[in-house]
Fold this protein.
Amino acid sequence: MEENTLLVVDDDKQSLQTINYYLQQSPEKYQVMSATNGALALQVLGKKIPELIITDWDMPHVNGLELIRRVKKNPATAHLPIIIITGINTTPENLQEALEVGADDFLRKPLNYVELYARTAATLKIYRYMRTIEQQKQDIAAQKHRELSSKTVELIQKREFLIEIRDKINAVLPKLKGTTKKEVHRIERAIQSNLNVQNSWEVFKVHFDNVHPHFFKNLLGACPALTQNDLKHCAYLKIGLSTKEIAHIFNISPNSVLTHHYRIKKKLSIDSDKKLIGYIQLIA
């Protein structure tokens, strides 16, 4: 997206030149791109994304309302603010219609350059403010995601360490006798108890839901047949755990994890050449 760059669309060449002149002479020194109808405007948007679109309503081929609909339908341009201008469709009903399809503001011809400056600046100010808020939300979500992934990996590593100690204790237990054997066995039980607590799905789920509050609902909406075990695998994939790390959590082999993921793919009707993790990452 090109900041401070505007796309002006109008089939009336004189009107287009006038708007361009006003905007280029404004205190903001906007960079202005032009198109003489909606169809050409869509071609321009395919090559370069402005920060704001100002479009006439009544145009051939693709009029202002249809242009707005197509812009809002395209994920690459749906976020762009749009001001629609008209000298014909000036009733309150027209205004409502324009706002309902996605226009952010409405200007009547003949244009007053002061009003053009004011509405353009105000629309951009609101848009930039909303972009900042959205970016902050994304940054916070990303930080929470990183913290959850890091904490989960840390617990996995601690669990692996405890399993290693437990196994070593079990290896020497038969060689011990009397009080020493009882004391070491007590330590082994304490380690096993700690392992059971660490492996608690419910503890993980509380933190996961805080970061991805709609994930399980949306996933089950896509496939109600997913089991609780399926959801666990998908959640661990969502936070970026590897096959080996997931295998440690479930105490199964990496091959068993891959087999389970293949079954989940079939339930979700994912093509065999597609990866499950790619699908999971798209679930909000």
